[in-house]
Amino acid sequence: MKNSRWLSLIVLCTGFLLIVVDMTIVNVALPSIQKDLGFSQSGLAWVINAYLIAFGGLLLLAGRIGDLVGRKRVYLAGLGIFVGASLLCGLSFNQPVLIAARFAQGIGGAVSSAVILAMIVTLFPEPLDRAKAFGVFSFVASAGAAIGLIAGGLITQAVSWHWIFFVNLPIGIATAVAAARLLESDKGLGLGQGADVLGALMVTAGLMLGVYTIVQTSDYGLVSVRTAILGTAAIALLAAFIVRQARGRNPILPLRLFRSRRVAGSNLVQALMSMAFLGFFFLGSLDLERVLGYSPMALGLAFLPVAIVMALFSIRFSAQLIGRFGPGAMLGAGQAVALVALLMVAFGPNHPNYFIHLMLPMALLGLGGGLSFPALTMIAMADVLPSDAGLASGLLNTTGQVGGAFGLAVLATVAGSRTVDLVGAGSDGVTALAGGYHFAWLVCAGLVVVTIATAAVLLRPERVATIQMGFDECEAAA
Prior knowledge:
- The structure is a single chain.
- The protein has 2 domains: about 1-195 and about 250-475, MFS general substrate transporter like domains (Growth Hormone, Chain: A, Up-down Bundle); about 195-250.
- The protein is built from 19 helices and no strands.
- It has helices at about 1-35, 40-70, 70-90, 95-115, 115-125, 125-160, 165, 170-180, 195-215, 215-220, 225-245, 260-290, 295-300, 305-325, 325-345, 355-380, 390-425, 430-460, 465-475.
- Helix 15 packs antiparallel against helix 16.
- The longest helix has about 35 residues, at about 1-35.
- The radius of gyration is 21 Å and the shape is globular.
């Protein structure tokens, strides 16, 4: 029985790895896609944006549907959509087909990934085992970005961009077959317990419009009139959704979830952490490519220390450390390490030697993520009732995605503005680019400081109990 639980975890995390890797594997192949299908620069952005809009917009709804109709069904349905859309992406022969297939991929990714944390909570009720399981999940969630860069570079150079999508087929099908056999079936609460159709439309439309507004700031500006209008509309939709949830009889998002200081605080911290970590990955990739001239394969390998160290601590050491010192302490320690790493790259030379100036910060970022993400996941899910676990899982993923998208928009704007200023001051193009990226990393470090302060206030040690106490309280509440 115990071994089957860990096999089930491997199945869940393999499916999630497909989804996380897909978010970054495409980035390395974008130049090849642009050349092959004739994308303009603005049109090429939609290969990424179509996925992000669908993924970020549907996570919350998908998590709640998992609570209502059964999480295994939702997970398998999402995998099926994702694999089918991957086939269409690989077979794409023009721009509209690829963009539509990427949107469908985002739907499948959201549907399957939204319920995974809830299924882990059900599989591992014991605190120590749950901490280990969250460590494995957090490694997949965090280091998958680096794995995607490595795989994207290898596949694009060795074969073609079509195969970054085709490789999802055998892995996805094998995962779905294993999931159907290993995962325990659950009936869910039933649609009558939370089938708020209008609320579902409101939150999905609001989140999709919000993500769309954020990703389009690269073309229209973060403070443009267009961004302000669309952002206001998205906020209005989400505000109307919250009002409906407060008054509705069967809300799709019961606001009681936010009475927990842990849940509310953890989601805010998740958004801030995602802004800093994803911002570094994105801008770091651009710096290595545009300033240092790395090839796609070399670019992917440069992030290998992040993946290795994060894997080591997420899977091997984080559970023991959390069990001994508590998740709050490990969250703070992980963020402190990440702060040191970001300051090292921010104040490093514009044309660094990788082994002297970048390898250590990369490893430290992996250590910071390996300590922070499992601890935060433990805190976020500790107070959640079993009936709301899918919703809480989708909510945590949503705040991470929306926070990451917003962070990328802000940091890209900051880096671009700094680059323009440096060019105006007489710097050459490459030096100005490097200066822009370094300034953005300094802003990332500032975000980590805000994250540490937020966690200290909202997730204070006396309010974030030990794993055992958190689990006992959750069981008593249930």
